[in-house]
Specification:
2 domains; 49% helix; alpha/beta; 456 residues; Isoleucyl-tRNA Synthetase, Domain 1; Rossmann fold; six-stranded parallel sheet; 18 helices
Length: 456
């Protein structure tokens, strides 16, 4: 049995959850479930990123105290656990006292290693990006702390030479090219006078941590680092296999900045990072102003939890951008769930209930493997291929006729089809856990279930 750690990014709490993050967290959940079914010990974490200028300004605009504001949105993200049937073991908030302590420990370790220094900076600053930029917005001059990023060029080049450290491969090459282009030290603090909502810099009350330095530490603070009272950091980070799941815009943060911070603090690098693509709608980026944002809660309300998981895992590409509209979602749902899996279960179990006694076939557990290179659509295509073949076989062999003319032969055909349906249920378990259980119970009790996927 292996110890495996998996984490999503932690979304910024200045807006409601959207379909893009739902995709990420369902992908991570499918992997966590696959590994557990394969016998591994898994720690699965997600959470919320709660500091920074954007959050502070959004709270002021909403007329709320900032803590009340982040409490509200963090709760919305926590609701995803029930809505999407997630199996995460932890939900880390960067406003938690334990996380604040961990972020300050990370700072102190990097400082002790000689990697943090202070200098005056003059440049252009964009609140929307929580970062200094090279054009537009306003000129700003202030004294900040910087991290010696350039010092870790050689380390990062060596780290990124490992073939599977980033998936997909082209993201690894993207990260390599960025390092080869030369790194610049980056700012890791803001003046408290200008930004009061942040974690205080150890030993300097005039500064708060830059939101990314603070937020990245969540990947180990959620495991109990630095105290590690429960031993989760040692078990899952130091001795286990670590995987971070993130969007394609996170490559520099997750695979470069974070890895340099870990090295500076004397900690093990992340074993692997998987980057997914973005979801667009009618060829446009989703935005509130365009009115094309799709909420995961609306998806669940319309299609149900398992159908939503199916749509995000099979019809949203694992690594490339995908275009999603309500019309496409309706089409996928109807064709593959209502007329596909749902219809097949009804056909098989109607025959079984009518002509067979209780199930007596083999029910041996078969271990499941996580999708290779995290290609969820491909893994589910394999399952749907079995669904289609079974459906086609019923149509071609007509067991409902054979059982009347040759009862023994017909019953054997129906029993074989019922056994295949049980296997399909098992393979669906990481992706559609409730549906898997409903089908399994239907087979074992020899009773056709209620309509799995009602017409819309």
């Amino acid at each position: 049995m292996s110890a495996r750690y998996i984490t999503t990014t932690i979304p910024y709490v200045n807006a409601d959850p959207h379909i893009g993050f739902a995709q990420e967290i369902v992908q991570a959940d499918a992997l966590a479930r696959s590994w557990r079914l394969g016998g591994d010990d898994v720690f699965f974490s997600t959470g919320s990123d709660e500091h920074g200028q954007k959050v502070l300004e959004a709270a002021r605009k909403a007329g709320k105290e900032v803590q009340d504001y982040v409490d509200h949105y963090a709760a919305e993200f926590e609701k995803l656990k029930g809505a999407l049937n997630l199996s995460n073991d932890a939900f880390i908030r960067t406003s938690d006292p334990a996380h604040i302590k961990a972020a300050q420990e990370m700072w102190e370790r990097c400082a002790k290693n000689g990697d943090i220094y202070q200098k005056e900076y003059e440049g252009l600053y964009c609140v929307g990006h929580e970062a200094y930029i090279t054009e537009k917005d306003l000129v700003l001059r202030e004294k900040n702390y910087f991290f010696k990023f350039k010092k870790y060029e050689k380390f990062l080049l060596d780290y990124l030479e490992k073939k599977k450290v980033i998936i997909p491969e082209w993201r690894r090459l993207e990260a390599l090219n960025f390092v080869k282009g030369g790194l610049e030290d980056f700012s890791i603090s803001r003046e408290r006078e200008r930004l009061a909502w942040g974690i205080p810099v150890p030993g300097d009350d005039t500064q708060v941590m830059y939101v990314w330095f603070d937020a990245l530490t969540n990947y180990i603070s959620t495991l109990g680092w630095p105290d590690d009272r429960d031993g989760n950091f040692k078990k899952f980070w130091e001795d286990g296999e670590t995987l971070q799941v993130a969007g394609k815009d996170q490559v520099r943060f997750q695979s470069l900045m974070w890895q340099a911070m870990l090295k500076s603090a004397g900690l093990k690098a992340t074993d692997k990072v998987f980057y997914h693509g973005f979801i667009t709608s009618d060829g446009q980026k989703m935005s509130k102003s365009l009115g094309n944002v799709i909420s995961p809660f609306d998806l669940v309300k319309k299609y149900g939890t398992d159908a939503t998981r199916y749509l995000l895992l099979r019809h949203v590409h694992s690594t490339d951008d995908s275009d999603v509209t309500w019309e496409k979602l309706d089409e996928w749902y109807t064709a593959n769930l209502t007329n596909g899996l749902g219809n097949l279960v009804a056909r098989v179990m109607r025959l079984s209930e009518s002509y067979l006694d209780s199930f007596s076939g083999a029910n041996a557990r078969k271990d499941l493997k996580a999708p290779e290179d995290f290609n969820f659509a491909s893994a589910m295509d394999v399952i749907w291929s079995r669904i289609q073949k079974l459906d086609q076989k019923i149509t071609e062999t007509e067991p409902f006729k054979v059982v009347k003319s040759d009862p023994e032969k017909g019953k054997k055909m129906i029993d074989d089809q019922r056994t295949e349906l049980l296997f399909i249920a098992h393979t669906l378990k990481p992706y559609m856990p409730d549906t898997s259980e409903i089908i399994r119970n239907a087979v074992l009790s020899n009773k056709k279930p209620e309509n799995l996927f009602p017409r819309i």
